[in-house]
Write a structure and sequence with these properties.
With 177 residues, this protein is mainly alpha-helical. It has one domain: Chitosanase, subunit A, domain 1 (Up-down Bundle). It has 8 helices and 3 strands. A 3-stranded antiparallel β-sheet has the order 1-2-3, with no helix packed on it.
């Protein structure tokens, strides 16, 4: 069965560190946790304290407690919600998890269900797991990647300001294939 820590390491490598991008709808972000979308995350209080110290934002990465909060955040809000531990193939689990972090749990679950010809409701359960696990991993990755890229293209058509992210999103989709 799939393991969380290797999947998390790959996600965090893609998410980067601390940033404030005026075009990013999430606003202030640390390791992929967007303040506007996750304003109640307990790590924001710690980050606000670090902003007053010299060495910000580099000092964030040295806080073991904060890094533990990040791990817990991703496990509870993404990995567990896509039932990451139940996938037979690590790379399939990582791809579904990664896309959940990037596009939302419901979107990732729905696309994975569609690819596996499962009932599409945006919630991964035992039937979805069985269907996804029954799909050849190479086929799953190919179809899931195409579906992710189509989703990104739809976002850019709706919000032209997101064009600057499109290339990065496509690269991320291809890396997780």
């Amino acid at each position: 069965m799939a393991e969380f820590i290797p999947a998390l390491k790959k996600v965090l490598a893609r998410e980067g560190g601390y940033s404030i991008d005026p075009d990013d709808p999430g606003g202030e972000t640390y390791k992929g946790i967007a303040r506007r979308m996750h304003s109640k995350w307990c790590g924001w209080g710690q980050i606000d304290l670090y902003k007053r110290q010299s060495g910000f934002p580099e000092n964030l990465d040295k806080d073991v407690g904060l890094q533990s909060e990040i791990e817990q955040f991703y496990q509870v809000n993404f990995w567990d919600k896509v039932c990451g531990d139940l996938y037979a193939n690590q790379s399939v689990a990582e791809s579904i998890f990664n896309f959940a972090v990037n596009a939302g749990v419901g979107v990732s679950a729905s696309l994975a269900q569609m690819v596996a010809d499962a009932h599409v409701d945006g919630v991964i359960g035992n039937q979805s797991i069985a269907k996804i696990n029954a799909v050849d991993p190479e086929h799953f990755h190919a179809a899931f990647t195409v579906a992710k890229i189509a989703r990104y293209a739809a976002i850019v058509r709706k919000r032209s300001g997101c064009k600057k992210y499109f290339y990065g999103w496509v690269c991320r989709a291809l890396e997780c294939a």
